[in-house]
Design brief:
seven-stranded mixed sheet; 302 residues; alpha+beta; 30% strand; Ribosomal Protein S5, domain 2; four-stranded antiparallel sheet; Alpha-Beta Plaits
């Protein structure tokens, strides 16, 4: 009987002005164990963040990914037991669902005795996962960039210095998970975003937190996200006063990411208190940039 354990990091793919062009992996993890069963049952156990979020086991993204691969190959084990233990908040802009999908694809690869390489799994994930940008960032770790061209992901890992970041997730009821894309955007705003990306990359490469925060200003998406997050401007100013160099929205939110050279725990506590002042409960983590990406363990038992 085969069993595979997959650990994948949280990811953000809208980093300031770099919309859907950069992915950053963070030190919050989803661990998924997938094992064969001798009977024909599908069992899904969930713990940690997102436990109970998906109404039934068949709708969990790990299960959906497994089934998608099984259907493509027209093969499947008799029964499957899935155990999910996640630190990544669901629906917060931190790539939780993409991590679950990738774990399912890797699980299917191992349960069926396939020998897909990491690159092949990356290409398959880019085609199957609803959030392919997050999927690539989770698999690669660190800082990465990729784009789909002729149904193939072109990607590279980019240099990133060791960094600590503050992640704050407010609890906002009915926060919309999707953001519609406008048909027309102002030319000057598009140029503003594009002009910052080279310096943003240099900030990540060198670990220059000040340079990163000087090039975080997004004029295309963040202005439409900010009104959805009660107390956003108050929280951002509070973070600055507590020592943060800059704050940006993770993905499409509502999680916020604060960059700072020091006093990370102090900043985290200040941001949670600022959300509380706005009547919003929030949680915070101080995490490093993850540089490993996917971590895999597979065993074969009798």
């Amino acid at each position: 009987m085969r069993k595979v354990t997959v650990r994948l990091p949280a990811t953000i793919t809208h980093i300031g002005p770099a919309l859907r062009s950069l992915g950053l992996a963070l030190g919050l993890y989803a661990t998924v164990e997938i094992s064969e069963r001798a009977d024909n049952q599908l069992i899904v156990d969930t713990a940690g963040e997102g436990a109970g979020h998906y109404s039934i086991g068949l709708r969990h993204p790990v299960t959906l990914a497994l089934m998608r691969v099984f259907q493509r190959l027209e093969r499947a084990p008799t029964g499957v037991h899935i155990r999910v233990n996640s630190q990544i908040p669901v629906g917060a802009g931190l790539g939780a669902e993409a991590a679950f999908w990738v774990a399912g694809i890797i699980g299917a690869n191992n349960l069926l005795g396939l020998s897909l390489s990491r690159e092949e799994i990356l290409q398959l994930s880019a085609r199957l996962v609803p959030e392919p940008d997050n999927a690539a960032a989770a698999l690669l770790g660190g800082l990465s960039s990729g784009l789909m061209q002729d149904n193939r992901l072109i990607h590279r890992s980019l240099p990133v210095a060791p960094l600590l970041l503050v992640v704050v997730v407010p609890t906002i009821e009915d926060y919309p998970e999707q953001l519609s894309t406008p048909d027309v955007i102002p030319w000057n705003d598009a140029l503003h975003n594009l002009s910052q990306i080279p310096l943003l990359l240099e900030g990540f490469r060198s670990g220059d937190v000040q340079l990163i925060t000087q090039t975080l200003d997004d004029r295309l998406v963040n202005p439409r996200l900010q009104p959805r997050i009660p107390g956003y401007h108050h929280v951002r100013e509070t973070a600055r006063l507590a020592g943060a160099s800059g704050v940006t929205i993770a993905g499409t939110g509502p999680a916020l990411i604060a960059f700072a050279a020091r006093d990370h725990q102090q900043i985290a506590e200040a941001m949670v208190a600022a959300f509380s002042n706005a009547g919003i409960a929030a949680r915070a983590w101080v995490v490093p940039v993850d540089t490993q990406g996917v971590v895999l363990s597979a065993v074969q038992s009798s």
